[in-house]
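Quick question, first post here. What does this chain look like in 3D?
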Amino acid sequence: MLLQASSSGPTASNKRIEGVADRVMPQITPVSTEEILERYLYQPELIPTDCQIILKMQWRPGLDSVDQNKIDSIQHHPRFRAFLTLNESSMLLLNANSDASHSLDMSVASARTYKSLLEVAAQQQQTPGDSSTILVPLAFFCSQHRDYRGDVNGNASELAMSLLLQLIDRYGDFDPTAHLPALVEELDPADITSVFAAFRRLVSVLPSTVIVAIIVDGLRFFDHPAERRQGLLQVVQELVAVHRSDESEATLKFLFANPTRPDLVEHLFTDDEALRIPKSPAISGPGHFGVVTR
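> Answer (accepted):
Ran it through. Tokens below.
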């Protein structure tokens, strides 16, 4: 009798199950890398151009803000070289200890390093079979965006967005369905917290074959006004949090560079993560400094 009763017709429970099954699950619209970059007005040549400007400035006649010996001492410092070459995640807060706060010694060293990273990444793209490593170099040169009134890139939220968009562009293999739609639906480009929530999610899905190398140079040039100073502090805090989270299998190399003591952010780093270049350092000798490529 029980079997007959249960088979006589659909129960309320069956109807509920059928109703769920009949409903069409919402589909996620794929979003391409190109759509994201276009939506947020990505400028792919901005950072390479800033880099070239800095490199050209070091040879300008009569420019007293560049000390070639200081630049060489930074590049050949054993701890700086180890930071670049050791096959492990690491952070470095680098104080060039220059005589003048407007000195470009540190920025030139950072620009040279970034140029080397770009060259390695380009070589990997041209000969993909030679290495399983994917180097993703990201940078921002604060010295080139000092004008907080007239330069659209002269604020901390644009610094954050620049790093995010560079990551999307230079890695180029984020899933258009699983990873990128949230950048359309949830991202607020003017909110640093929102930008780094997106940045953190993307970094967390990178494979172990990826090395993300970030250079944020010239921190002091974003030292004022107070609003930009606070924004810069938040950017560095967010990057340090990403690095310490251990959420990503990728190797993370984060360099924060300043011509003088970076008092705004130094409390965020351990002694092992901070490097102060001596005033008159001995240079360890000429030679090529490379980057880790596994």
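The chain has one domain: 34-276.
Residues 96 and 259 are 5 Å apart (CA to CA).
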